[in-house]
Amino acid sequence: MAKVLCVLYDDPTDGYPTTYARDDLPVIDAYPGGQTLPTPKTVDFTPGHLLGSVSGELGLRRFLEERGHTLVVTSDKEGADSVFDRELPDTDVVISQPFWPAYLTAERIAKAPKLKLAVTAGIGSDHVDLDAAIAHGVTVAEVTYCNSISVAEHVVMMILSQVRNYIPSHQVVLDGGWNIADCVSRSYDVEGMQIGTVAAGRIGLAVLRRLKPFDVHLHYTDRHRLPREIEEELNLTWHASTQEMVPFCDVVTVNAPLHPETEGLFDDKLISTMKRGAYLINTARAKIADRDSVVRALESGQLAGYAGDVWYPQPAPADHPWRTMPHHGMTPHISGSSLSAQARYAAGTREILEAWFDGTPIRDEYLIVQGGGLAGVGAHSYSTRT
Ligand code: NDP
């Protein structure tokens, strides 16, 4: 029987909800492109309920305990004395969410000889040292597509809120004020702008599609070029590299995974080649942008705004400079953890666990590492250090 160690974010500060703002979730039949939604045999949770926090347990307890497995759920993940570190040595399966990542470093993997499966209840497995997972024969899987559209919606919201100066204008209302000039002296229309995405995968392409009706000029760069019909449909300009694309853009949105090719990509040098007053929106991973370069660019005016929901480390310390830098629209890491997304990634996590315990294959679409190498979607989108 297996021990499953599940690291989730804390419950709401005023307790686990007993009621919700809405009674149901819209039914989604399939993802764009036709990939099916998660297909577990059944689920033991109500879609629309809070599943990603400790008391929600991703709806997994009954399923695991009925099969004789042990489930440990905790939010305590930092430091040698954390519940995570104490429980890890005899754990078979770790489940973690990018929003509250249990960093599975090489040192931690070395201390977990029984660990065979690391599941990301979400998308983005960069909190797992993939080289170490490969070396130790750990399978890494994530719930591909579960929250890609959730993030795309968040990106569009952040582009609009930055360009139109929404957050400071809302603050004027909260403060009892009415000074229009304070609100509009940094407010522009998105219409006509040049907007580029670094990566046009599931999220990047969904962002492009959602932006098209705003009558903007769309650009992208990606390691693999999109089919010609899509380039024509969206009137896309393709660039061979991020470096080539960003000088053209008023807004750049980052939608690539964090891996050796993308780490530190937006540094002083790259940002200095952007248009003065460009906006940078990063909901992918914090380390794709250099922390202090972003602060410097906002302070100098090279960037007019920066928004996103990804930080390093997570949770971000109280003195993280991105909390106080000018003209930012940061949120905690929430874009992929709407109640809608939670229902999908909880179901996807269950689907992966069912396959694992039944000894049937995990979908290729979910695999990042298996059999001592990058596999499935991981072989397409990630790279390793070696
Ligand atoms: P996909 O795998 O569908 O897309 C990733 C794309 O990035 C692929 O098209 C890939 O190219 C491209 N890519 C990889 N490396 C580079 C590079 N060096 N330069 C340009 N493009 C590159 O993933 P998603 O769109 O679903 O998710 C993307 C990322 O967003 C995740 O890895 C995760 O880090 C982040 N994310 C954030 C969430 C949040 O809550 N904030 C939630 C979900 C995801 P190709 O495959 O063509 O080689």
TrEMBL record:
Its EC number is 1.17.1.9. Keywords: Cytoplasm, NAD, Oxidoreductase. Its main location: cytoplasm. GO terms for cellular component: cytoplasm. One of its GO terms (molecular function) is oxidoreductase activity, acting on the CH-OH group of donors, NAD or NADP as acceptor. InterPro entries: D-isomer_2_OHA_DH_cat_dom, D-isomer_DH_CS, D-isomer_DH_CS1, D-isomer_DH_NAD-bd, FDH_NAD-dep, NAD(P)-bd_dom_sf. SUPFAM superfamilies: Formate/glycerate dehydrogenase catalytic domain-like, NAD(P)-binding Rossmann-fold domains. NAD(+) binds at residues 148, 202-203, 222, 257-261, 283, 309, 333-336, 381. Residues 62-363 form the D-isomer specific 2-hydroxyacid dehydrogenase catalytic domain. The record marks 285, 333 as: Important for catalytic activity. One of its GO terms (biological process) is formate catabolic process. It catalyses: formate + NAD(+) = CO2 + NADH. Substrate binds at residues 123, 147. It is found in: Cytoplasm. Pfam families: 2-Hacid_dh (PF00389), 2-Hacid_dh_C (PF02826). NCBIfam families: PRK07574.1 (NF005750). Homodimer. Belongs to the D-isomer specific 2-hydroxyacid dehydrogenase family. FDH subfamily. This is Formate dehydrogenase. It comes from Planotetraspora silvatica.
